[in-house]
Design brief:
Blueprint lengths: L8 H8 L2 H5 L5 E4 L2 E4 L11 E4 L4 E4 L5 E3 H9 L3 H12 L14 H19 L4 H9 L4 H6 L3 E3 L5 H8 L5 H5 L3 E4 L2 E4 L4 E7 L5 E8 L11 E3 L15 H11 L1 E5 L2 H9 L5 E3 L7 H8 L4 E6 L3 H16 L3 E6 L6 H18 L4 H12 L5 H17 L3 H15 L3 H22 L10 H16 L14 H8 L4 H6 L4 H13 L7 H26 L4 H25 L2
Parallel strand pairs: 12-13, 12-14, 14-15
Antiparallel strand pairs: 1-2, 2-3, 3-4, 4-5, 6-9, 7-8, 9-10, 10-11
Helix pairs in contact: 1-4, 3-4, 11-14, 13-16, 15-16, 16-18, 19-20, 19-22, 19-23, 23-24
The structure holds zinc ion.
Length: about 575
């Protein structure tokens, strides 16, 4: 972070914040010693490897190595900037945040650019140039009122138009480039969204962060995708956003139920016909982050995907993701050639509403689905059913619910519960052998040994609150953190300085593992670090020898090596007794 809040300020917020209840909104946490553990909200897992240290306001996942301070947590989960996360928690704790120079926020301009662009596109839709788009909207059965509610817009044909407006407003183009509205090629800037209907995409609290757009002119030369999505940026993370959530959230809250569709137009068409609790996972297959987000607003969700085979595959894939978020999942399958938009336009909101209300539970739906598509009989069908049900059943974290389903399945199949459990376990292992590891990002593995040693050393200095006095800064990879650690920075202050995810995850782990009884640790780590340095020099020396003699370089290296050896001796004297 370029901007610095005063020393101790972050600690005041952490001291006043109930870390467990903040993180507990995203995953259930159980006490274990003076830590809390739960299922990781950053990757899919069955056994908890996510750990929270409430005293220091830290989290770390032993599975995917996500880690950081409570501020980092909110940045990741809510798409906030560091400053916003600080502000957020400070406000909740009733602490006043000092205003930083320049807003103290490197992404300030991005939200403004997104808001500005959305307004520009809306104005264009209502102007003369937006006539064909307005006609298109009406043709698809959408009223202006609904179009307004979803803030639809129009990207005009003139690719310079928005640039002129940006200029006139005295804004810079850079944030617009960052959010993918303005493109740049060979020094020329242009609007990327042109002759297209624009769908602003917002966070759950309604802040516009990105755009999707759809070409509507019948350009015979256009062969690209129907919908185009902004790429991820500092304020927009596709995988954690549901389209239409700000408009649907109160309806989901009051009915306790959401409707999950695939497309932007599905959400809007359903809203037009009075079904106001629909959201879509756009531009991405459903992620567990989206499912967790959905679960925060209502306990039930009805999947209403397209009737085609792609929609079926997506339905089958999404069930387990929704179940592992603790949602009660219901499934509606539309006729083969229908999507929610076409269906509601043809049959009306009441007819579709009734189907949604009477949707079967995932369990009944999947059971019947496997039966119907199977061409085997008897035992063969039963085996297929067990195979298909194993993963979704295992995804249910509520033990009682899971047991009830398994009992029901054993009744339907006419098998003993114990042998069914046995088969489910086998089927689960078979299907999960690969995919269980797919979600896990091998992040920490990418850090070098030196990097890990340096971060462990920093963690220990911070945890022990024991400054190390050396003539020279021994860190090569994180030299900037050395003085901070020795000046008594807190864990969250250290973490807020690291932008690299892997390094932050590793530092969190090291901070959690740093034990106050580990007095010799600092010496051992310094020793290891210097040893690495000596190894490097020895390596160079032997390469040099292999190349024949180079007196000057050789002498320099030998001098360097004896310098390192001297430092090692010093460390031995001070730390290792
Ligand atoms: Zn994880």
């Amino acid at each position: 972070m370029a901007e610095r809040l005063s020393q101790g300020f972050l600690d005041r917020i952490i001291a006043a914040t109930d870390t467990v209840s903040v993180i507990g909104r995203y995953t259930a946490l159980k006490r274990r010693g003076n830590r809390f553990v739960g299922l990781c909200p950053f990757h899919k897992e069955k056994t908890p490897s996510f750990t929270v240290d409430p005293d220091r306001g830290l989290y770390y996942c032993f599975g995917c190595h996500a880690g950081g301070s409570i501020f980092n947590f909110l940045m990741e989960k809510e798409g906030l900037t560091f400053y916003q996360a600080v502000e957020n928690l400070a406000r909740a704790a009733g602490i006043e945040v000092p205003r930083l120079e320049g807003g103290g926020d490197r992404t300030d301009g991005l939200y403004e650019a997104a808001e500005f662009s959305a307004k520009f596109f809306r104005k264009a839709l209502k102007a003369d140039m937006g006539r064909s788009a307005r006609e298109y909207i009406l043709r698809r059965g959408i009223s202006y009122e609904t179009a307004d509610k979803y803030e639809l817009g129009w990207g005009p044909a003139d690719r310079n138009h928005i640039l002129k407006s940006i200029d006139k407003a005295g804004l810079g183009a850079e944030p617009f480039i960052e959010i993918d509205v303005v493109g740049e090629s060979s020094g020329r800037r242009y609007c990327k969204i042109n002759e297209a209907l624009v769908f602003p995409i917002s966070t759950s609290s309604g802040k516009i962060v990105a755009f999707a757009y759809r070409k509507i002119e019948n350009d015979p030369n256009y062969t690209g995708p129907k919908y185009i999505n902004s790429s991820d940026n500092k304020i927009y993370h596709k995988s954690s956003i549901l389209y239409g959530l700000p408009q649907a959230r109160s309806s989901i809250r009051s009915s306790g139920k959401s409707v999950l569709v695939e497309g932007y137009f599905d959400v809007i068409a359903l809203a037009e016909k009075g079904i106001t609790n629909a959201v879509a996972c756009c531009g991405t297959a459903l992620t567990s982050e989206q499912a967790n987000l959905l679960a925060r607003f209502g306990p039930k969700t009805v999947m209403l995907y397209d009737g085609d085979s792609a929609g079926l595959r997506a339905t089958l894939r999404s069930i387990e993701i929704l179940l592992s978020s603790g949602l009660d999942v219901y499934v509606v399958r539309l006729p083969e050639d229908e999507d929610p938009d076409s269906y509601v336009m043809a049959h009306g909101g009441e007819a579709l509403g009734e189907i949604i209300d009477n949707a079967p539970e995932w369990f009944d739906w999947l059971y019947k689905h496997v039966r119907a598509k199977s061409d085997g009989s008897g035992i063969a069908v039963a085996t297929e059913i067990v195979d298909e049900m194993a993963v979704p059943l295992a995804s249910i974290s509520d033990e009682m619910k899971r047991n009830l389903y398994i009992r029901e399945l054993s009744k339907r199949l006419g098998t003993a519960e114990e042998s069914l459990r046995d088969h489910l376990r086998k089927a689960y292992r078979k299907q999960r052998r690969h995919s269980d590891y797919e979600d896990k990002k091998p992040q920490v593995e990418d850090l070098s040994d030196e990097g890990k040693i340096e971060l462990s050393l920093l963690a220990l200095i911070v945890a022990l609150k024991k400054p190390v006095e050396l003539e020279e800064n021994p860190l090569k990879l994180y030299p900037g953190l050395w003085n901070m650690a020795n000046d008594g920075a807190s864990p969250s202050e250290m973490l807020s300085e690291i932008t690299d995810e892997r390094a932050r995850g590793y530092l969190s782990e090291a901070l959690m593992n740093a034990s106050e009884s580990d007095e010799n640790g600092i010496g051992v780590l310094l020793f290891k670090l210097l040893q690495k340095e000596a190894d490097r020099i020895n390596d160079l020396l032997s390469k040099l020898e292999g190349l024949g003699n180079d007196d000057e370089e050789g002498t320099r290296l030998l001098r360097e090596r004896s310098e390192v050896m001297r430092k090692i001796q010093d460390i031995r004297k001070i730390y290792i007794r």
